[in-house]
Write a structure and sequence with these properties.
Elements (H helix, E strand, L loop, with lengths): L1 H27 L12 E5 L7 H5 L25 H8 L19 E3 L17 H23 L5 H5 L11 E5 L2 H10 L2 H24 L4 E5 L8 H5 L15 H24 L4 E5 L1 H10 L28 E3 L2 E3 L19 H11 L5 E2 L13
Parallel strand pairs: 1-2, 1-3, 3-4, 4-5
Antiparallel strand pairs: 5-8, 6-7
Helix pairs in contact: 4-7, 6-7, 7-9, 10-11
Length: about 375
């Protein structure tokens, strides 16, 4: 009897230990057992997350863009995938179709309203500012919902309905926002640094208004990226090299990065306010700036070349954009490099697929998030 009691006690102990271990595993890995299972994703932003919008609306993006992963241009200003593509992969969703692309699109699991050159405020480099993108979303939601309800009554049109979002899933989807870089860049190009910093409250205010509108339309789960270290973009560094006093220890333009950090400080504060103003929403603020700056700071140790070098196009001696080339006095400008995966910058402004992958790997697990939750658990955290 004594032996049987000991065995029962031992078995009970193993059971308790096993349950405790499972609970710890669940608590430490929100992305597995506690995954939100977002059925769709809707993205708003600029070229950092544009998967074909500006290419469909205006001039098509040319080779060698897309060469590393897609094998052909895929509407992205990169040699391959963007952070938004890695988000889709992480959430087990298909790559987002651009809202502006009318050929071969599928909106069943979401849509991408981001377009290259877009800013929060007009004017800017693109007519598709954030306000326009929000208007497009409202129209998209209304029209697809009406069409879905209409087709649902006709059982003979299953193919037509298969590419449409489900109306009930708009409130269950993840809404990702990555915009603001062009507001700062446009400001630095046409105004002074002081004017750029002075404009930030209004930029953040308009971004907040856009989120309020999305909330009114039923959006509840927001994943908001800070803007990146624009002063580290090779295109910007090139024009400040004659003034080394403006560069930091990593060779980045200090005034531009300081403006980006101030933008991010105000954005984070605004997100905190929105948590109170929109009580049924869940907001995750993602410090993309710090992730990208960490990559740039440790480029050599991570196997990348000088972070201020880029792979495609030329700003040295002769200015030519990626996708074009020219011969000047016997010198060929614009040919892409042989190893894009060793470059952080693809074309002097946009990141390479390798850099996007590194950043995605470090932000999607919650390491740079407030609150610190992985993207798969962005619906669960407390305010």
């Amino acid at each position: 009897m004594k032996g049987d009691s000991w065995k029962l006690f031992y078995a009970f102990g193993l059971l308790v230990f096993g349950l405790a271990t499972q609970w710890i595993a669940v608590k430490s890995d929100v992305g597995s057992s506690y995954s939100c299972g977002f059925p769709a994703m809707y993205n708003f932003g600029d070229s950092n997350s544009d998967t074909g919008g500006i290419s469909a609306a205006f001039t098509e993006i040319q080779p060698p863009n897309g060469e590393t992963f897609f094998g052909h241009p895929a509407g992205r200003a990169s040699d391959g995938r963007l952070i938004v593509d890695f988000i889709a992969e992480n959430l087990k969703l298909p790559y987002l179709s651009a809202y502006l692309d009318s050929v071969g699109t599928n909106f069943r699991r979401g849509a991408n309203f981001a377009t290259g050159g877009s800013s929060v405020r007009p004017p800017g480099y693109s007519p598709f500012n954030l306000g326009v993108q929000i208007s497009q979303f409202i129209q998209f939601k209304a029209r697809t919902t009406a069409l879905y309800n209409q087709l649902s009554l006709n059982r003979r049109t299953p193919l037509a309905i298969s590419n449409l979002p489900r109306p009930a899933e708009f409130s269950q989807a993840l809404y990702t926002i990555d915009i603001g870089q062009n507001d700062l860049a446009h400001g630095f190009q046409y105004t002074t640094g002081k004017q750029v910093v002075a404009s930030i409250p209004d930029i953040i205010g308009q971004l907040s208004q856009a989120i309020h509108i999305l909330y009114k339309e039923g959006a509840r789960y927001f994943w908001v990226h800070s803007t990146g270290p624009i002063g580290c973009l090779p295109y910007n560094v090139l024009y400040y090299k004659s003034n080394p006093g403006s560069l930091d220890k990593n060779g980045c333009v200090r005034p531009q990065n300081e403006a980006a950090m101030e933008f991010n400080r105000q954005l984070k504060d605004k997100i905190s306010q929105l948590r109170t103003q929109l009580p049924f929403a869940k907001f995750t603020y993602v410090d993309v700036y710090s992730a990208k700056y960490a990559l740039i700071s440790n480029a050599k140790n991570l196997g990348f070349v000088d972070p201020h070098n880029f792979c495609c196009g030329s700003f040295y001696g002769y200015h030519i954009n990626c996708g074009k080339n020219a011969v000047v006095n016997g010198t060929v400008y614009g040919n892409p490099c042989n190893h894009p995966s060793r470059h952080i910058s693809w074309d002097g402004i946009h990141y390479s697929q390798a850099a996007n992958m590194w950043v995605a790997d470090h932000i999607l697990n919650g390491s740079f998030s407030d609150p610190p939750v992985p993207i798969q658990g962005a619906c669960h955290h407390q305010k």
